[in-house]
Design brief:
Number of helices: 21
Radius of gyration: 34 Å
Strand order of the largest sheet: 7-8-11-6-12
Helix content: 40-55%
Largest sheet: 5 strands, parallel
């Protein structure tokens, strides 16, 4: 039995049956100049039809990714590929692992329009080595692409809590959040009315980051509205016993608990200015001083913030720091109000029914006429849902709890609608009174409060007095010869010693 010849990757590649090599570009460092010329001679002897071109490419450090990629990129840029006349391949078997990674990246990005070749020595009693052709054209691999698409849908379903929402704008928002949360560690700001689901979405973003291995630690939920007085800093940043001198007063702080995980700053618009400044430093530096300590503590965490108020307006009013807002709003997502998602009432109804069944431990369903009446009320333009999902889920839980024999009747729905409208009117009356009291010092008749509050709100949300007048007198102005809406509005405000300039400045 004869002695098996030594396997030589580049030389044997040119001997591969069924894979003729017309031209081989051999890249080498000056330290391997003699070896490169030896390989060239052996290829020309083994495969006379193969033209071998040597390219010297010196590397200071062949394991430095930046240097290797840059030089190979420059080589590819100057090459002058002619895909109409030639087919190109990259032999990955030789070279450092860093070089192989760079070749892969250049091929995958199509900077080099080439397929990849991986060869190996003979196995067992074979005389011929292995030859594998790798084509990175993913469009050919439908099953692989479908798997990617399925995974994206799964992440989207996770962020939506498994609810098959239909609202196009909301689904587009979730898709964008999924992309950002899966790729970026930057802060995420969730803005929206109270009850739009900011806390639930923050929990799901954390779960997605956990699945994507963006974080390892836990989610720490901070309700900034509860951080008041002298205990706020201790709650956030921790406290050493030396600060009080009393046993049992040492605490780690919520920022320390979030190390390696996610810190969710719920209702950050309620945080005081002093806490905002300290928090900004902790987010940017990853370090802070606990109370009573002269040594900084390190805690690295990702941030999700939730706000119901208009942070930009709060900056203008001097109650929110512009530098903190700038740090938080690289990725800002505005959650729509429930009333702006009429397509989703039915799927959310099914979801809330399932949640109520879990809570109560019973099966509950709507009679058909009751379901129609409820969905008609829920999606009506005049139903504003001021509490958003808090109102909606609370109403469904009440209906399920009081359902006779597990069936929700139309009479129940009528009673629940009356309950909601009564509560909303009472809350609206309180809000109107507070708004009027903010601008009018003297007493105002109860009859005038709703109208004046509407005028004040319209003025605050209009760019000019003429725009406000057009909105307020949209019907009556059609029957008037003079349509000086701005003048009518000025006269109305003057009855309460108010002016447009005063409201506009406020």
């Amino acid at each position: 039995m004869g002695k098996r010849r030594r396997w030589r990757p580049t030389v044997d590649l040119c001997r591969t049956e069924g894979f003729p090599v017309d031209r081989l570009e051999l890249i080498h460092d000056h330290k391997f100049n003699r070896l490169a010329h030896s390989v060239k001679r052996d290829i020309e002897e083994a495969s006379p039809e193969t033209e071998v071109l040597l390219h010297r490419m010196d590397m200071d450090d062949p394991w430095d990714l930046e240097e290797v990629y840059t030089k190979l990129f420059d080589f590819a840029s100057d090459y002058g590929f002619d895909e109409d006349r030639e087919r190109y391949h990259i032999h990955l078997t030789t070279g450092t692992h860093v070089g192989q990674i760079c070749w892969f990246l250049l091929s995958e990005s199509r900077h080099i329009p080439a397929a990849l070749i991986q060869t190996g020595p003979p196995r067992g009693g074979d005389d011929v080595g292995t030859f594998d052709l790798i084509d990175l054209d993913l469009s050919r691999y439908d099953a692989l692409q479908q798997r990617f698409d399925q995974q994206t849908r799964e992440y989207g379903d996770l962020l939506k809590g498994g609810i098959k929402t239909r609202n196009v704008a909301y689904n587009r928002l979730i898709d964008r959040i999924e992309q950002v949360a899966g790729l970026s560690d930057a802060p995420i700001l969730l803005q929206g009315e109270s009850g739009t689901g900011k806390s639930e979405l923050a929990q799901r973003i954390y779960e997605l980051k956990l699945q994507r291995r963006r974080v390892k630690g836990r989610l720490v939920h901070v309700n900034c509205a509860t951080l008041r007085g002298g205990t706020a800093n201790a709650t956030l940043f921790g406290q050493r016993r030396s600060f009080t001198g009393q046993a049992g007063t040492e605490r780690a702080g919520l920022l320390r608990e979030a190390d390696g995980g996610v810190l969710f700053l719920d209702e950050i618009d309620a945080l005081g200015l002093e806490e905002q400044a300290l928090l900004l430093h902790a987010i940017e530096a990853g370090q802070y001083y606990p109370l009573g300590s002269d040594a900084e503590v390190t805690s690295r965490f990702q941030v999700i913030a939730g706000a119901s108020g208009d942070l930009s307006a709060m900056v203008s009013e001097g109650v929110f720091r512009i530098d903190l807002l700038t740090r938080l709003n690289l990725w800002t997502f505005h959650l729509p109000a429930l009333r702006d998602r009429p397509e989703d009432f039915e799927v959310n109804l099914r979801h809330e029914l399932a949640q109520a069944e879990k809570t109560l431990g019973i099966r509950v369903g709507f009679n058909s006429d009751a379901s129609e009446a409820w969905l008609r009320f829920a999606s009506a333009p005049g139903t504003l849902w001021p509490g958003n999902f808090r109102d909606f889920s609370g109403a469904i839980l009440r209906l399920c709890t009081l359902a006779p024999r597990g069936r929700i009747t139309r009479a129940q729905v009528v009673d629940e609608i009356a309950t909601l409208e009564r509560r909303w009117r009472a809350a609206d009356t309180d809000q109107n009174s507070q708004l009027v009291a903010k601008y009018v010092n003297g007493p105002v008749d109860p009859f005038d409060i709703p109208q004046l509050a509407n005028v004040l709100h319209t003025c605050q949300t209009s760019a000019t007095i003429s725009e406000a007048g057009r909105r307020l007198f949209a019907v009556s102005r059609e029957d008037r010869k003079s349509r000086n809406d701005a003048d009518r509005l000025r006269k109305y405000l003057a009855k309460f010693d108010l002016s447009w300039a005063e409201l506009n400045d406020g």
